[in-house]
From TrEMBL, chain A:
<dbReference type="GO" id="GO:0071034">
    <property type="term" value="P:CUT catabolic process"/>
</dbReference>
<dbReference type="InterPro" id="IPR004088">
    <property type="entry name" value="KH_dom_type_1"/>
</dbReference>
<dbReference type="Pfam" id="PF15985">
    <property type="entry name" value="KH_6"/>
</dbReference>
<dbReference type="GO" id="GO:0003723">
    <property type="term" value="F:RNA binding"/>
</dbReference>
<comment type="similarity">
    <text>Belongs to the RRP4 family.</text>
</comment>
<feature type="domain" description="K Homology">
    <location>
        <begin position="174"/>
        <end position="213"/>
    </location>
</feature>
<protein>
    <submittedName>
        <fullName>Exosome non-catalytic core subunit</fullName>
    </submittedName>
</protein>
Automatic annotation (TrEMBL), chain B:
<dbReference type="GO" id="GO:0000177">
    <property type="term" value="C:cytoplasmic exosome (RNase complex)"/>
</dbReference>
<dbReference type="GO" id="GO:0071051">
    <property type="term" value="P:poly(A)-dependent snoRNA 3'-end processing"/>
</dbReference>
<keyword id="KW-0694">RNA-binding</keyword>
<dbReference type="GO" id="GO:0016075">
    <property type="term" value="P:rRNA catabolic process"/>
</dbReference>
<dbReference type="GO" id="GO:0000467">
    <property type="term" value="P:exonucleolytic trimming to generate mature 3'-end of 5.8S rRNA from tricistronic rRNA transcript (SSU-rRNA, 5.8S rRNA, LSU-rRNA)"/>
</dbReference>
<feature type="domain" description="Exoribonuclease phosphorolytic">
    <location>
        <begin position="39"/>
        <end position="202"/>
    </location>
</feature>
<dbReference type="InterPro" id="IPR020568">
    <property type="entry name" value="Ribosomal_Su5_D2-typ_SF"/>
</dbReference>
TrEMBL record, chain C:
<dbReference type="InterPro" id="IPR050590">
    <property type="entry name" value="Exosome_comp_Rrp42_subfam"/>
</dbReference>
<dbReference type="GO" id="GO:0034475">
    <property type="term" value="P:U4 snRNA 3'-end processing"/>
</dbReference>
<dbReference type="GO" id="GO:0034476">
    <property type="term" value="P:U5 snRNA 3'-end processing"/>
</dbReference>
<keyword id="KW-0963">Cytoplasm</keyword>
<comment type="similarity">
    <text>Belongs to the RNase PH family.</text>
</comment>
<dbReference type="GO" id="GO:0016075">
    <property type="term" value="P:rRNA catabolic process"/>
</dbReference>
<dbReference type="GO" id="GO:0000177">
    <property type="term" value="C:cytoplasmic exosome (RNase complex)"/>
</dbReference>
Length: 340, 294, 316
C-alpha cells in the first residue's frame, strides 16, 4: 500500500486560477521526471530543477512543478535538503574550525555556524573575544546537536546558520530521529509542546528532536509563542510552584541567566521519568509510522498518530509495518472526517 | 718489524673482561607447582625492549612471547577526545603449526586425517603467502581479542590526540593442538597486561586472563596443557574458554568459548568460573611480580 | 561523526534503568523485523536477500564447485563486502572469520552432504554483500562510525541461502577409490538436490532420528550489554553506548560456539565500554535459548514460501 501526499507550498494556492489560462503547463500535482518536457511556452522563467533546449523547458529532476508568478521550477521529491534563509533546522556539529563550526544539516554541503552567530556564554549580548575563540569546543563540539536557523546562503548554496535566539541552541534531554526532508511540512512554527510532557522540534531538513518538555523556568525560552505551551505551563505552575515573578515575560536579567554556560551544558535533566521516556519513544515510533507511509509530517498528524498508537499497548509492536500502516490509515481517515 | 698499521696498546694493557651476566633468576617469580594452583609455571621479565615505552617477555612451556607497547604518542589529523588503541600480532615461527588451527577445528574420520596430512604442505604455502601481505587468521583473532579486552582497562580519555600501539610477537609456540589459539590468547593477554603496566600508561585496572576447559565428565581443568594430552578428547563434549577479567569492577572484558557440540548455561558458568579462578591466581602472581621489581 | 554527549547519556539512562526503554521501543528480547526473499539470483546455487526497515540490506549468493579433496576447512569460502569499504579493514576480516568459523564448526552432517566421491567434494563459495543504511550519512570512505554490526543479519541470510541451495545430482559412481574417474552430473535443474533437505513429509520426520531432522545452518545472535540489561539485535544507537557486546551462536536447537565478546562501538570512542558481569553471559545464553527457536522457525517459513518476499514479524 502506498500513500503519497505531496506537501504543497502555500503560495501555490493563489496561482490556481492562473493555471487555467496557461494550459500547456502541467498541473501542479503532476509529477515530472528528468527529461520530460514541461512547456514550450517562452513566457516562463526557468528555475531550479529545469533546463532548456531551444525554447523548450524540460525537467531535470523527478518532482512536482512549482510556479511562482512567472518562475517555473521543479521541486524534487527526493534528494538532499536545500537550505533557504529563515528555515528552522536541526544540525549536528562535525568539525570545530577557525572561528566557526561545520554543521551537518543533511544538505549537499555542510553548513557553517560562525562564532559570531551564537549566543556567547556568560552574560548579555557582547562582542566575541579571543577567549571565546579558545573555548569554542566547550560551547559546541563534534557530535553536538543544535537547533538553529539558516541566516543566509553563500554563493555556492551552502548555508550560514545562527542560534542568536533563546529558542535556539544545544539540544538535550531527548532523542534524535531523521526522516526524509520532503515529509516535513513547512509551517510558521516548527517547535511544539505535545501532550505527555514531551516537546518536539521538526527541523525543515528532516531532522527531528523529541525531548522532555523543559521545566517551568526554561519553558518560556523554548516556546514562548505556542499558545498551548503557555496554557500547559500555567496549569503546571499553578500546581507545582505557584506564581513566580517574571515568569510571564522575558526580561533582560533572565536573558543574562539563560545565556550563561548553562545553555551549552551536556548534562541531561536528572530523573526523567520512565513515563516520559516511553512517551518520547511512542512519539518517535508514531513519526516513523508516518514516514513509513510517506505521509507529510506536521503537529496535528503527529498528535493523531500518537493517539492512534495508543491502541497498541506495546511500544515494540509499533515497529511492525502492518501496525505502522494501520496508524497511517487512522491518521488519514481522521483527517478526512475532520475535513481538513 | 712491528705491524705499523696497527696501533699497539701500552705495555701494561690488560685483556678486556666482561662483567658477569646478571642472574635472570632474580626477576623470576617463585616457582610454583602445578598441583597447587593448576597453572603451569611461567617466566616473566619486563622492560627488555629498550626502544619502546613498555615491554614484557613471557615464557610458558615452549611458548615465548614478547609484547612491546609504543605510546602514548601524538598523531596528526583531526582532534579526538581520546587516544586510539591498536594491537598488532606477529607470529615469527611455526606458522605451519598454527595454521593447523583452522583445519583441525573439525573432527575428522581417520582416513580424512591422512589425506589432510598430504594436503598440509599446500596449506603451508598458502598461509605463508597470506602471512606476508596481511595478518594470518590466528594473528587477526589474537589482535582483535587483545584489543577488545584491553579497551575498557586503559584510560584512553587521558591521552587525547594520541595513539597507543601494542605489538605482540610470538617467538615460539609448540602447541600442536586445536586449542593452541586459546592458550596463546591467554598468555598474550597476560603478557600485554604487564607490558602496559611497564609502559606507565594509566590503567583503570590490570586485565588478567584465565583459560579453562570442561571435560566430558563435567570436570573443570584450569590451564590445560594440551601438549601432553594430544587430541584424545576431541569429538567428546568438551568446552574450552578464555576469559579476561578486571578485578576492581569484577567484569569480564574478553571472552571466547569454543566447543564442538552444543552448550548450556550451566556448562558455561562452570567453565567461566574456572577461567576466573585462574585469572585471580595470575593476577596475584602479577601483583607479586610487580611489587618485587619495583 | 558521532552522537552528542547528551544523546548518549539519555540513551544510556534509558537502557540501564530497571525497566529499560529501547530507542525504538522494542522489548529486550525482540528482534527487528526483516523482509526476506530467497532464490532470486538465477546464476547461484542458492541466494537470499534480507532487508531491515532502516534500509540496510544483505545479499548472499552461494555457488558450488567440484574440487579434489584437500582439507575440510577449504570446502567453504566466505567473502564479505560492506558498502564500498576497503576489504582489508580489520573488523571486516574479523566478521568474516567469525561467520566462516561458525559455518565450519556447525556444518550439516560434518560436510557429509558435500561429499561426492572419496576424492571429490563440492566446495561452496559464500559471497556476502552488506549494504548499510549509513552509507548515505558517511562523510568519507573510511568513516565507519555509523556502521552497525551486521553479524546477526548476515547469519540469517546465510541460513536462508544455504537452506535454498540446490546441488546437481551425481550420476557417476560415488565410489572411486580404486578407479579414478571425474564425477558427472545430471544436467537437469529440476533433479537437483537440496543441500539441507526440507522435511515436508511427516513420515520421514517420524522415521528419522531427531538429530538428522533438526540439522540446519548456524545462526548468530548479537547481544548488547548495558549494566544488568541485555538487548538482542541492538540498533546503532544501542551499540554505541553498550558496555560490551556478545555474539552467541545457535545451531540445531543448541547454543554453540562462537560465544565471544565483541566490540560493538564502531566510532572509536571508548567511554562507554566497560565489560560485563559473568552473570550477563549466562543470561544471554538463556535469552538465546528462548528466542532462537522462534527465529529459525520463522526463517524456515520463508524457505517454505519460496520465492515470495515475506516479512518476518518481530518476535515477542
Amino acid at each position: 500500500m502506498e500513500i503519497i501526499t505531496i506537501s504543497k507550498f502555500n503560495n501555490n494556492k493563489g496561482l490556481n486560477d492562473e493555471d487555467e489560462e496557461m494550459e500547456d503547463v502541467s498541473n501542479n500535482d503532476q509529477i515530472v521526471t528528468p527529461g520530460e518536457l514541461i512547456t514550450e511556452d517562452t513566457v516562463w522563467m526557468r528555475g531550479h530543477g529545469t533546463f532548456a533546449l531551444g525554447n523548450k523547458t524540460y525537467s531535470s529532476v523527478a518532482g512536482t512543478i512549482l510556479k511562482v508568478n512567472k518562475l517555473l521550477s521543479v521541486k524534487p521529491l527526493k534528494g538532499r535538503y536545500t537550505p533557504e534563509t529563515g528555515d528552522h533546522i536541526i544540525g549536528r556539529v562535525i568539525e570545530v574550525g577557525n572561528r566557526r563550526w561545520k554543521v551537518d544539516i543533511g544538505a549537499r554541503s555542510d553548513a557553517v555556524l560562525l562564532l559570531g552567530s551564537v549566543n556567547l556564554p556568560g552574560g548579555i549580548l557582547r562582542r566575541k573575544s579571543d577567549t571565546d575563540e579558545l573555548t569554542m569546543r566547550n560551547m559546541l563540539k563534534e557530535g553536538d546537536l543544535l537547533n538553529c536557523e539558516v541566516q543566509s546562503l553563500f554563493q555556492d548554496g551552502s548555508a550560514s546558520l545562527h542560534t542568536r535566539s533563546l529558542k535556539y541552541g544545544k539540544l538535550k534531554n531527548g532523542i534524535f530521529l531523521s526522516v526524509p526532508r520532503s515529509l516535513i511540512i513547512r509551517s510558521k512554527n516548527h517547535s511544539f509542546v505535545l501532550q505527555g510532557n514531551v516537546s518536539i522540534i521538526l527541523g525543515v531538513n528532516g531532522y527531528i528532536w523529541i525531548y522532555k518538555t523543559p521545566t517551568v523556568d526554561n519553558r518560556l525560552k523554548t516556546d514562548s509563542t505556542a499558545s498551548t505551551a503557555s496554557k500547559l505551563q500555567s496549569g503546571v505552575m499553578g500546581r507545582q510552584s505557584g506564581y513566580q515573578v517574571g515568569s510571564g515575560s522575558v526580561s533582560l536579567t533572565r536573558l543574562e541567566e539563560e545565556s550563561s554556560w548553562e545553555i551549552y551544558s551536556d548534562k541531561n535533566d536528572e530523573n526523567i521519568s520512565d513515563a516520559i521516556r516511553s512517551n518520547i519513544i511512542r512519539y518517535r515510533n508514531a513519526i516513523q509510522a508516518l514516514a513509513h507511509s510517506q505521509i507529510g509530517i506536521n503537529e496535528s498528524r503527529i498528535n493523531m498518530a500518537y493517539e492512534a498508537s495508543m491502541a497498541y499497548g506495546s511500544l515494540g509492536s509499533l515497529t511492525e509495518p502492518e501496525v505502522m500502516e494501520n496508524i497511517s490509515n487512522d491518521v488519514l481517515n481522521g483527517e478526512k472526517m475532520r475535513g481538513s | 718489524m712491528s705491524d705499523r698499521r696497527r696501533i699497539t696498546g701500552p705495555e701494561s694493557a690488560l685483556p678486556l673482561v666482561f662483567a658477569p651476566t646478571p642472574n635472570n633468576q632474580s626477576t623470576t617469580k617463585s616457582p610454583q607447582e602445578k598441583t597447587n594452583s593448576g597453572i603451569r609455571n611461567f617466566f616473566i621479565k619486563t622492560g627488555i625492549v629498550s626502544n619502546c615505552n613498555g615491554s614484557c617477555f613471557l615464557e610458558v612451556d615452549n611458548t615465548t612471547i614478547i609484547v612491546s607497547v609504543y605510546g602514548a604518542k601524538p598523531i596528526r589529523g583531526s582532534s579526538v577526545t581520546s587516544a586510539s588503541f591498536s594491537v598488532m600480532t606477529k607470529v615469527s615461527n611455526n606458522l605451519e603449526e598454527l595454521s593447523n588451527f583452522t583445519s583441525s577445528d573439525l573432527s575428522h574420520s581417520k582416513e580424512e586425517k591422512e589425506e589432510q596430512k598430504l594436503a598440509k604442505e599446500d596449506e603451508y604455502v598458502t598461509t605463508n603467502q597470506i602471512g606476508k601481505t596481511q595478518l594470518s587468521l590466528v594473528e587477526q583473532k589474537l589482535s582483535t581479542y587483545i584489543q577488545t579486552a584491553f579497551l575498557p582497562s586503559i584510560l584512553l580519555e587521558k591521552y587525547p590526540k594520541s595513539s597507543i600501539e601494542v605489538f605482540i610477537n610470538i617467538l615460539t609456540n609448540d602447541s600442536h593442538t586445536n586449542s593452541s589459539l586459546l592458550s596463546l590468547i591467554t598468555w598474550c593477554a597476560n603478557c600485554t597486561s604487564l607490558a602496559l603496566v611497564d609502559s606507565g600508561i594509566e590503567l583503570k585496572d590490570m586485565v588478567s586472563t584465565g583459560i579453562a576447559k570442561l571435560t566430558d565428565d563435567q570436570t573443570v581443568v584450569i590451564d590445560p596443557s594440551y601438549s601432553n594430552e594430544g587430541r584424545k578428547t576431541v569429538g567428546g563434549q568438551e568446552v574450552r574458554a578464555v576469559a579476561s577479567y578486571m578485578s576492581v569492577t569484577d567484569t569480564v572484558v574478553g571472552l571466547m568459548i569454543e566447543s564442538e557440540e552444543g552448550v548450556n548455561g550451566e556448562m558455561i558458568e562452570k567453565v567461566i568460573d574456572g577461567c576466573n579462578t585462574m585469572a585471580r591466581e595470575i593476577r596475584s602472581n602479577m601483583n607479586g611480580f610487580l611489587v618485587s621489581t619495583m | 561523526m558521532s552522537f552528542s554527549v547528551s544523546e548518549k547519556d539519555y540513551l544510556y539512562q534509558s537502557l540501564s534503568s530497571k525497566t529499560p526503554i529501547r530507542p525504538d521501543g522494542r522489548k529486550s528480547h525482540q528482534l527487528r523485523g526483516i523482509e526476506a526473499s530467497i532464490n532470486f539470483l538465477p546464476n547461484s546455487n542458492g541466494s537470499s536477500r534480507i532487508r531491515l526497515s532502516d534500509g540496510s540490506e544483505v545479499i548472499i549468493s552461494i555457488k558450488s564447485k567440484v574440487v579434489k579433496m584437500s582439507t575440510l576447512a577449504d570446502l567453504i569460502e566466505l567473502d564479505l563486502t560492506i558498502d564500498n569499504l576497503r576489504d582489508d579493514l580489520t573488523f571486516i576480516s574479523d566478521w568474516t572469520n567469525i561467520l566462516r568459523n561458525s559455518l565450519l564448526r556447525n556444518f550439516a552432517d560434518k560436510f557429509e552432504c558435500l561429499k561426492l566421491t572419496t576424492r571429490y567434494y563440492f566446495k561452496l563459495y559464500v559471497d556476502v554483500l552488506f549494504l548499510s543504511s549509513s552509507s548515505n550519512a558517511r562523510t568519507t570512505k573510511t568513516d565507519t562510525s555509523f556502521l552497525q554490526n551486521p553479524l546477526s543479519m548476515i547469519s540469517f541470510g546465510i541460513y536462508l541461502a544455504l537452506k535454498s541451495t540446490r546441488l546437481p545430482l551425481l550420476i557417476s559412481n560415488s565410489n572411486d577409490k580404486d578407479i579414478e574417474e571425474l564425477p558427472t552430473f545430471n544436467d537437469d535443474w529440476s533433479s537437483t538436490v537440496l543441500l539441507y533437505p526440507q522435511d515436508e513429509d511427516e513420515e520421514i520426520k517420524e522415521n528419522n532420528t531427531t538429530s538428522q531432522n533438526s540439522s540446519s545452518p548456524p545462526l548468530l545472535f548479537v547481544l548488547s550489554v548495558v549494566k544488568n540489561n541485555l538487548f538482542i539485535d541492538p540498533s546503532i544507537e544501542e551499540q554505541e553506548i553498550s558496555d560490551c557486546g556478545l555474539v552467541i551462536g545457535w545451531c540445531s536447537g543448541k547454543v554453540v560456539s562462537p560465544i565471544e565478546s565483541l566490540n560493538l562501538n564502531q566510532s572509536g570512542s571508548s567511554e562507554y565500554i566497560k565489560g560485563m558481569h559473568g552473570q550477563n553471559i549466562i543470561e544471554g545464553i538463556k535469552m538465546i535459548e528462548n528466542v532462537a527457536a522462534t527465529v529459525s522457525k520463522g526463517l524456515d517459513e520463508i524457505v517454505k514460501d519460496g520465492n515470495n518476499s515475506v516479512f518476518m514479524d518481530s518476535i515477542f
